[in-house]
UniProtKB/TrEMBL annotation:
Signal sequence range: none
Pfam families: Abhydrolase_6
Top-level taxon in the UniProt lineage: Bacteria
The keyword Hydrolase appears for this protein: yes
Organism: Amycolatopsis heterodermiae
Gene3D superfamilies, A to Z: alpha/beta hydrolase (3.40.50.1820)
Keywords on record: Hydrolase
InterPro entries attached to this UniProt entry: AB_hydrolase_1, AB_hydrolase_fold, AB_hydrolase_sf, Epox_hydrolase-like
Ranges of residues in domain AB hydrolase-1: 16-250
GO molecular function: hydrolase activity
Protein name (Swiss-Prot/TrEMBL): Alpha/beta fold hydrolase
Length: 262
């Protein structure tokens, strides 16, 4: 599978591969691409299968499929080992990738994500939503989701962020988003595997995150030995966009202290 991606920064530098969430695209990492490349890193940000500019004919895309796509992209770009980070569904894909390919990851970022299984109601909700957006498209779904994606403070003070998030969600291909929801509903429980993670790990969460609250991040932090937890005050589910300065500082500081210098 050939993914659409951006590849910025020196090719000989430490590489950071960042994985977007649902229903977004690679542009959600724009502040991090700018920040990290300014500090000398190489940053690769793909559109996942079925998202952004990437099309898919899948009706169900498992997180293992997404993870293998990422490893395939890394192989094509000559990335033997790399920093791997993801947010929300992207974080779950990252957990799948490090479980399947632990030798490829040097440092881990898990942002606003959840390691456990869905409740039966949440699982059915994903399946029902997949059917709905296949019928209706993304616009109404995006408008309903937006108030939960970013904090009230962000909506009040950052119209630029609200507009960007709305645009990404409305423009997401409905078929790809639906396929991901169906696959995500069947994902395994990543909690037991957290104890096997043996690389420096940064866990980040917005203090106002409604989808994956601070308690979810705290559980990941407890399970991953030696991990670092950072709570971004005032941010919702997308702290990398809502409070990009704080998020970028936390990430670049962690990369430096963990030995992943440019």
């Amino acid at each position: 599978m050939t993914l659409t991606y951006d590849d910025a920064g020196p090719r000989t530098a430490t590489t950071v591969l960042l994985v977007h969430g649902h229903p977004f695209d690679r542009s959600m990492w724009r502040p991090q691409v700018e920040h990290l490349t300014e500090h000398g890193y190489r940053v690769v940000v793909p559109d996942l299968r079925g998202y952004g500019t990437h099309k898919t004919e899948d009706t169900k895309t498992g997180l293992d499929v997404f993870a293998n796509d990422l490893i395939g992209l890394a192989d094509r770009l000559g990335m033997e080992t790399f920093v791997l980070g993801g947010l929300s569904m992207g974080g779950q894909i990252v957990m799948q990738a490090i479980a399947d390919h632990p030798d490829r990851v040097s440092v881990l970022l898990l942002a606003d994500t959840f390691a456990g299984l869905d409740t039966p109601d949440v699982k059915q909700g994903r399946i029902d939503t997949a059917a709905r957006i296949t019928r209706e498209g993304m616009e109404r779904y995006a408008d309903e989701l937006l108030p939960k994606m970013i904090s009230p403070k962000t909506r009040e003070t950052r119209p630029d962020v609200e507009a960007h998030v709305r645009t990404m969600m409305r423009n997401a291909p409905a078929e790809g988003a639906a396929a991901a929801l169906r696959g995500r509903a069947e994902r395994p429980d990543y909690t037991p595997g957290l104890r096997n993670i043996a690389v420096p790990t940064l866990v980040v969460v917005g203090s106002e995150d409604e989808f994956t609250p601070v308690s979810d991040a705290e559980r990941i932090h407890r399970e991953v030995a030696g991990s670092t937890l950072v709570v971004i005050d005032g941010a919702g589910h997308l702290p990398n966009l809502e409070r990009e300065t704080e998020f970028n500082e936390a990430l670049s500081t962690f990369l430096t202290t963990s030995g992943a210098k440019p």
